[in-house]
Design goal:
Layout: E1 4-7, H1 13-20, E2 24-27, H2 37-46, E3 49-52, H3 60-65, E4 71-74, H4 84-90, E5 93-95, H5 102-117, H6 120-128, E6 149-153, H7 157-167, E7 172-176, H8 182-188, E8 191-192, H9 195-201, E9 204-207, H10 221-226, E10 232-235, H11 244-252, E11 258-261, E12 281-283, H12 292-310
Parallel strand pairs: 1-2, 1-3, 3-4, 4-5, 6-7, 6-9, 7-8, 9-10, 10-11, 11-12
Length: 329
């Protein structure tokens, strides 16, 4: 019997063709509706491999149901949606898609910064709604980006690439990270600071840190109150690193000037969420890596990882480095 692969989102047939040529493949019929938990459990119980997305909760119950499950290929850099401890115990390889999305996510992050700073979305809607009746000197005046101070929280691959973009704007670049990056300091001219110093000195604060127990709710009301009143906060990491109510209150109180958000605590965010009512918030639907080229590369990497594990080889981008396949699987 051929190995069974379940894909939790509808993908173009051409991209899953390499899997269909080797295995029995079943795919959820929607690309924008999450697979229900009961369906996921039923499929996991039959699957040798799961092709998942970040919105899927691959918890202990799913992994335990997967008696034959050998690999979970997650279409994301992050993997906080997967129970790694159980995966290790069950001998299940967990894979992600790093590197291939670095430049694309950095582009979006810097674009979000520019949109929030120059009030681009607000201005576009102003024109479309027929409000532009005349020109005036300070009509929708935003904030300059060039020669300002950028603070990057989380100096991984994407953080370094955002810093590279910022050098073209002659920005003074600060960063905070769990470990210093001497090579980045040398090549990009970035400066390591404490978190508090970065928050206090930066004109733009860009959050790119992974979600961990230490970073959850990292940005509190107290943190926002330390920022400049002219500061703009950008989050392209994970929604849970920010206390959203605190951010809302800081924006309403004028403690910071604006925010650009690609991620939220609950996704998709409700249309009546208070943050979406604020004109100085640019909100995007978690599209950091969403270019046709990059999403295709991410899918291809997931497919490659699944094939590797099912053929008894180590996958290209293994998350749980201590993974060892169980003999009885």
């Amino acid at each position: 019997m051929k190995p069974y692969v379940y894909v939790t989102r509808k993908l173009p047939d051409a991209l899953v063709k390499p899997l269909r040529e080797k295995y029995t493949v079943n795919m959820w019929k929607h690309d924008d509706i999450p697979v229900p938990k009961d369906v996921l459990m039923e499929e996991a119980a039959k699957a040798d491999a799961l092709f998942t997305v970040l919105a899927d909760s691959i918890d202990d119950s799913v992994l335990t149901a997967g008696k034959n499950l050998k690999v979970v290929a997650n279409l994301a850099v992050g993997f906080n949606n997967i129970d790694l401890k159980t995966a290790n115990e069950k001998g299940i390889a967990i894979c992600n898609t790093p590197d291939v999305l670095t430049d694309t996510t950095a582009d979006l992050t810097f674009g979000l910064l520019m949109a929030a700073a120059r009030r681009m979305v607000e201005a576009a809607e102003f024109v479309k709604e027929g409000k532009w009746q005349s020109w005036s000197p300070f009509l929708l005046a935003g904030h300059d980006i060039h020669h300002k101070t950028l603070g990057i929280v989380g100096m991984g691959r994407i953080g370094e690439t955002v810093a590279k973009r910022a050098t073209g704007f002659d920005m003074n670049i600060l960063y905070y990270n769990r470990t210093r990056k001497p090579e980045a300091e040398k090549q990009l001219g970035v400066h390591y600071t404490s978190f508090d110093e970065l928050v206090e000195k930066s004109d733009f604060i860009v959050c790119l840190t992974p979600l961990t127990p230490e970073t959850e709710n990292m940005f509190t009301r107290e943190v926002f109150q330390k920022m400049k009143p002219s500061a703009i906060f950008i989050n392209a990491a994970r929604g849970a690193v920010v206390d959203e109510q605190a951010l809302q209150e800081a924006l309403e109180a004028g403690e910071i000037a604006g925010a650009g958000l690609d991620v939220f605590q609950r996704e998709p965010i409700a249309a009546d969420h208070p943050l979406l009512k604020l004109p100085n918030v640019v909100a995007l639907p978690h599209i950091g890596s969403s270019s046709t080229e990059t999403r295709t590369s991410m899918v291809n990497l997931c497919v490659e990882n699944i094939i590797s594990v099912l053929e008894g080889k180590e996958p290209k981008t293994l998350v749980n480095k201590d993974w060892r396949p169980l003999i009885n699987k």
